[in-house]
Please model this.
Amino acid sequence: MDEQIQQCEQEQYLQEKAAQTDTADNKKVKISGTTFVMLLTLGVLVLWLCILLIFRTNSAVCERICRTLVNAYVSVAGRFYSVVGFNVFEVLATLCVIGVIGGIVASIVLFCKKYGAYSRRVLIVIAIAAVWVANLYIFVAGFAYNRERAPIPVYESKTASTEVAVNTYIAAIEDFNSTVEQLGTYPDGRAICPYTDKQLREVIRDAYERLVTDDYYFDYTAKAKPVISSGIMASFGIMGISFVPTAEAGYNKDMPMVEKASTIAHEFAHIHGVMREDEANALAAYVLLNSGDPYLKYSFYLDNMGFLFTFICYNVDPNYYTVNYPTHSAYRIEKEYCRKWWDEHDFMTVVGNFFNDLYLKLQGQEDGTGSYVELPEIDGEETVDEEGNVVINYNIMYNTIQRIVLDYYN
Ligand SMILES: [Zn+2]
Model:
């Protein structure tokens, strides 16, 4: 027995010696069987990642994979992880961070103690885990970044006459004002939210189940889960975070209620297979506006009022309409309330935006965080009227959210 131990120690010593000599003199590395198997596993995973990335460049392949394999995966994973009450992604992300930091520290310690082979193995394990996660993520979420556009019901044309645009604005403002009256207001002037967090999640989930039924979308409607570390999220300026591998729609539990509604609706879009940010915003807008629920509609208007003003900013006098059709004061008060809340919490937004931008660019979204907003396209044509005055006629190509509103009111 002693002889065996001695032999093992000797082998280990010789192995370490070989590794040390290699780093010092740049000579040939002697790789053990275990290390070889680990490197082979890593190589296979990297190769598979390359194949997935090549598949991802073809949108027809992405569409097919999303509608079949990913849809099936989300159906199973969604039901599995929904049983757990807490946000599994949050726990996994925390364990990952601890694992990677712990692994790197262990690797450095082993290296310093002349256990070069073990030090390398720890790093290879970290690399294997990272590439495995990347493979899973590309499969469940990456393909959806290059699939067809989501079939959200919109106004048939991208353009509308000035009359239609102005009438849509008036109808929307009147609807917003009556929605606030219906909800009632808190003493500070914001509309009353009639729901608890749990009820709000269920109301939005129910709206998705009724309104998002096209085969394009994943069948499973996720459950929204509050993120325990919402304070950290808020400091980075993050409102919500979806993780398709666990089919969980996470949201910041501390932020204003009206923003929880629009955020949960946005995150649900991701778990339904709509990964591009502008489309997730558009699907959320469609569901909130068409839900028939006053508070969800209120949340829609709060988020998208800026797009409604575009209806009266061109070819007419905007002042006339803002004076004659004023927006309920709840809009201004609620916006201010949200702005103040974020001012008190998001002191590291620059860092949050940097990583979000990087993530989106890695998913092939050239505009990064700029991809959240689809702007309408506006150009002007100069003409001279009978009195010799220059008049500009604007042509507007409305964006998806404006076309959702045009469709809703016309
Ligand atoms: Zn998003």
About this structure: The chain is about 65% helix and 5% strand. Residues 107 and 367 are 38 Å apart (CA to CA). The longest strand covers residues 377-384.
